[in-house]
Amino acid sequence: MNLRPRLIAALAIFVGMALVPPVAAALGDPFLTVIASRMLVFAIAALSLDLILGYGAMVSFGHAAYVGVGAYAVAIGARFGVTDLLAQMALGALMSAAFALVTGAISLRTRGVYFIMITLAFAQMAFFFFVSQSSLGGDDGVALTARSTLLSTDVLESDIAFFYTILAVLVLCYGGLYRLTNARFGRVLTGTRENPLRMQAIGYRPFPYQLTAYVIAACIASVAGVLLANQTEYVSPAYMAWSRSGELIVMLVLGGIGTLTGAMAGALITVGLEHTFAAWSEHWRLGFGLLLVLVVLFSPDGITGLLKRLGVGPRHD
After folding, report:
1. Which residues form a coiled coil (predicted)?
2. CA–CA distance from 40 to each of 76, 115, 227, 250, 286 (Å)?
3. For residue 299, is pLDDT > 70?
């Protein structure tokens, strides 16, 4: 199997994003780096959802709950003197893994629309739990006094340093998921997506693989949440609202479900278009919706599928 096209596509995304800060400096517009940081954060979140939706056919409408849990790990950690970014990521991953292990074990007993609704229900439970926490600002959320430290330094206070930190995390997440999805685990997960009965017939139990993928995706989403809280310097229950989960699904549809490069591209394009359209009109969602309709009608497998048909995109991830 020729692995070069997909790796080249991912490398092109990483290199292109790495050039944003110097380009922003040359244009005298540092806000471009801030927008690019947000794009990278959601690329991480989209990657995590693609693992369970694209490879495992688990359509979760509550995935943003884990982004929110990661964000609150920053606020909770800061209250107890835990300000290091890596420690907060570990805390967020631990909290998300515990939540995903319990809710995933229950949710995976269902299929189809029932799975969608039960993941939504659990996400709403998490949403209202944090809304009820007045010590954390309740529905209004809580502002962070500063960004997290990194190895006992305040280097992340620099938007450029923070941008490259997020980019490094994205590269690590992509590399890990790339290896995972191309290993036996990923092939079993993909086989379960295609025909679970056949996978059982050849000796594989889908449930442990699906639950493991569900927990891994939750942990990665929580990492995105930690970075999002630092990027905005604010934590709110809105991060885990059902509409945010819908936005993550839109990113996958736009980029291409079941391809890691498509997940990243979809997130980058979606966030970029949001800022572009919003600068033109307050009714930007109408234009974005029309664009999404066109993509679904004429390229159901997203932008990566369109590029593949044109012979310039990666065939698989």
Report:
1. none
2. 24, 28, 10, 16, 24
3. yes
